[in-house]
Amino acid sequence: MDNASRRPEPLELAARVQERIRDVARLGVAFSGGADSSVLLALALRELGPDRVVALLGVSPSLAARERKSAHEVARALGARLVEIETHEGDDADYRRNGPDRCFFCKQELFRRIDDEVADRFGLTAIAYGENADDVLRPDRPGSEAARRHAVLAPLADAGLTKADVRAVGRALGVPSADKPAAPCLASRVPHLREVTPEILGQIERAEDALHDLGYAVLRVRHHGTLARVELGDEELVRVTGSDDEREAVVVAVRAAGFEEVEIDPRGLRSGANTLAALEGAR
Question: What 3-state DSSP class applies to 65?
Fold first, then answer.
C-alpha cells in the first residue's frame, strides 16, 4: 500500500483531533458514555488535562438508567469530572410531536442549558460533541443543526475520523467503551408522529432492561402501541431464531413490560430505522 492510500495509524488520528482543541482554555464535552463522546473526552483529557475538561451528561426520561450508570463508569475510568445537566425536552411540544426532526429539539435543549446554566459556572470557553465523519453523511441526524447554531465543536468529524477510526483510536488509548454498541436515546424507539411521553419511554426501558438481563446486548424495542417490535443484532438474532426457548423467553420478558404483542423483526437491528423510513416517505 502506497503512502497516498495508507490509512493513518490511530495515534496519528488522535493527534489530528487533539490539534483541533489545542487552543481551547476550558472545554465541555457533551458526553453520553458511547464510543464517540468517550473517545473525544479521552483525547480532550490527553491534550488539555483533567483541570481543563468537563464531561457534560444530559439527564431526562429519554436516558436509560443503565446508560446513565455506564456513562459515570466510563468518565470515572478516564479520570474526568462529570456534571449532570437536567434537560426538559419533554416540555417542548415540538419534541413531543416526534417528527423526523425530534433530535434537533433534544440537542437544542441540551446545548441551551449548557450555555445558560453550565458554561459560566465552570468557565468553559468551548463545547464539543462526538459527531464523526460518518455521521456527517447521514440524513437522519438533525441534532447537528442544533450544534451548529450553538457553535458546538465537532473535532472528530473535522479531523475526518469515521466510526471505525474512532473505535480504533479508543482501543489504542484503552477507552473502556471503544467497542460499545451504539445506544441512542429511548425516544428513538417511538415511530415518528407518535407522541413521546415519559410513560412510553419507561415501558421501552423496562422491556430493554429485561432483554439485557437475559444476556442480549445489541437491541432495540420499537414501541407500536400495544405491539413491541424487537430488533436484535446479528449474533442475538441467530441466538433467538435458533431456539424456541430463547424466542419464548424474549416474548415473555417484553410482555412483562406491558406489551400485549411481541414481534421479533427477522431483519435484525436497523439503526435509525424510524427516521430513515419517515424521511423516505416524505420524498
Answer: helix
**Buried residues in 180-195 as b, exposed as e (16+ CB within 10 A):** beebbbbbbbbbbeee
DSSP 8-state class, residue 153: B
Q: In terms of Cα–Cα distance, which of 63, 66, 103, 105 is closest to 84? A: 63
Q: How far apart are CA 213 and CA 246, in angstroms?
A: 13
Please state the pTM of the whole predicted model. 0.91
Q: How far is CA 61 from CA 12, 18, 215, in A?
A: 38, 33, 24
Is the pLDDT reported for residue 277 higher than 60?
no
Whole-angstrom CA distances from 83 to 87, 131, 268, 279 are: 13, 20, 35, 35
What DSSP letter does each residue of 239-272 carry, written as one string?
A: HHHT-HHHHHHHHHHHHTTT-SEEEE-TT---TT
Contact 72, 79 (CB under 8 A): no
- Measured CA to CA in angstroms, residue 82 lies from 31, 53, 57, 63, 263 at distances of 9, 9, 7, 16, 38
Query: Starting from the edge strand earliest in sequence, which strands make up the sheet with 227-232, in order?
Result: 219-224, 227-232, 261-264
Say whether pLDDT at 2 is over 60. no
